[in-house]
Amino acid sequence: MKQLLTLSRAARLVGVKRGALQKKIRDGELPTFEGKVSADDLLRLYPQVHLEDNKELERVTRIKTHAFARRVRDYVLPDAEVLAARLTEFGTELAEAKAKLDRYSTFVSRLKDKCVEIDNISGDELQSAMGSLSGWLHEQLEIGLLKSVHAEPLLVKDRLLRVMAANVHILPSGHEFFVEGTDSILEAALRAGLALEYGCSNGNCGQCKARLISGEIKKTRNHDFVISEAEKGMGHILMCSNTAVSDLVIEAYEAGGVQDIPLQQISARVKGLERVNDDMMVVNLQTPRMNRLRFLSGQSVTLDVGNGLKADYAVASCPCDDRNLEFHISGAKGTAFTDYVFNKLKRTDAIVIEGPKGDFVLQEESPNPIIFLAYDTGFAPLKSLLEHAMALDVAESIHLYWIVSVKGNHYLHNLCRAYADALDNFHYTPLVGADARAALERVVDDHPDLNEFDVYVSGPRRFASVSEKILIDRRLPDNQLIVGTIS
């Protein structure tokens, strides 16, 4: 019987994106069985995979750690109780497998004895047939069942991953993610870029309630929200207050689009102010633990600093780190709002966030490779989309073109270079030129066949219009062009 693996688990084992496996499935290189792939077929396509071959996974972990301001999570162990429970589970599986093997061995031995008895029955043909069968069974016992069997390295690696991280399958969406370390189910889902329903993240509101279909969980914190006895009997749990002990199947609601994200008003505090060049301030805000901002990557909010000073800005960080929000504020236009941010705003000051708004968001279900085109501060929403795409592991490859009107305006150039250094499937091309059309010609020259790409364009309205015309003229399908404009 073939060992079947989900796409998420298979991608993790061989160190590639889900999108890369999906492309091989579309091209007919990788067969599927009810949406899963076999370990044998994986090894055929990736024969270089070994138990110790974790370099790609380490690179992805490293860049995510930097991008999302997380602690290093390279095979972080769960707490002792969860680890003990997982090891007990696998010990039970091993004991059951051994017992089954012993039963089969006993069965075959007894069958051999029966054949010996039959061998004494008269009749030349019967004796010949039974002698042949007896010889075959004896051979299998001597050189088949009794010889040493070496475990498949890919499956050994899968067992290791199952100890380190539990796999969670969500119904009805079919999305998957891994719970690592001491993360709650909700925290792990958000880190993976999934838009699950939640509110306070602290066990008070009950909005992250889900139904456990199968698997074992462990409560990590008490919660004030009361789950009725009837709901408990149906398997309802709070995802923010439990972690996964074993692989899980849960039924949970996910946002299907911008219409499913509620409008919110949150008072956040300034956590950091970094003037990355003369005209650009990167502002980091932190929301209260029990009142985080739910948003989709690429969306914007209104920032209100008081005294009637407010303005709209794209969130430049990933939804997977919903407490720590990043904004890129340019002082080039010299408004009253930007003057306040550059000259008066201080750490720990309060800023009211209203939002989110906008439909310039990631097409999460598309497995196509991605091209991001940013012009000047249009990089901010693309940074959010980029980090979200990395968290979801959906795109086979990502190419960022950042066009600036003036040399030196790639204000986060080193960060983009770090992405490119850490990820084999990420490419970064900085371009300079007030003539956006000339820069766009470089993009289409690099990718003469745009039919298989999703292209995201972010910048001033004029840049967006020019980009749209050039890309559509080069046969980019309309439904694969996603355009966002900034003021």
3D architecture notes:
The chain has 487 residues and is of the alpha/beta class. It has five domains: 46 residues, no CATH class; 75 residues; 91 residues, Beta-grasp domain (Ubiquitin-like (UB roll)); 99 residues, Beta Barrel (Elongation Factor Tu (Ef-tu), domain 3); 116 residues, Nucleotide-binding domain of ferredoxin-NADP reductase (FNR) module (Rossmann fold), CATH 3.40.50. The protein has 14 helices and 20 strands. Helix 5 runs antiparallel to helix 6.
Structural class: alpha/beta
Provide the residue-averaged pLDDT: 84
DSSP strand tally? 20
- Specify Rg, calculated over alpha carbons: 28 Å
The percent range for helix content is 25-40%
- Unreliable spans are 50-59, 68-75
CATH architecture of the largest domain: 3-Layer(aba) Sandwich
What is the approximate shape?
A: elongated
CATH top level of the largest domain is Alpha Beta
User: Mind describing the biggest β-sheet?
Assistant: 6 strands, antiparallel
Q: Give the count of structural domains.
A: 5
Through-space gap between termini: 59 Å
> According to CATH, what is the topology of the largest domain?
Rossmann fold
What is the number of helices?
A: 14
> What share of the residues does DSSP label as strand, in percent?
15-25%
Strand order of the largest sheet: 13-12-15-10-11-14
Question: Outline of this structure?
Answer:
The chain is α/β, with parallel strands linked by helices and 487 residues long.
SSE topology sketch:
Layout: E1 4-5, H1 7-14, H2 18-26, E2 37-38, H3 39-45, H4 55-67, H5 80-119, H6 124-145, H7 153-164, E3 165-171, E4 176-180, H8 185-191, E5 209-214, E6 217-219, H9 229-233, E7 236-238, E8 242-244, E9 248-251, E10 264-277, E11 280-286, E12 300-306, E13 309-314, E14 324-330, H10 336-343, E15 350-357, E16 370-375, H11 379-392, E17 398-404, H12 413-422, E18 426-432, H13 436-446, E19 454-459, H14 461-473, E20 481-485
Parallel strand pairs: 3-9, 16-17, 16-19, 17-18, 19-20
Antiparallel strand pairs: 1-2, 3-4, 5-7, 5-9, 6-8, 10-11, 10-15, 11-14, 12-13, 12-15
Helix pairs in contact: 1-2, 5-6, 13-14
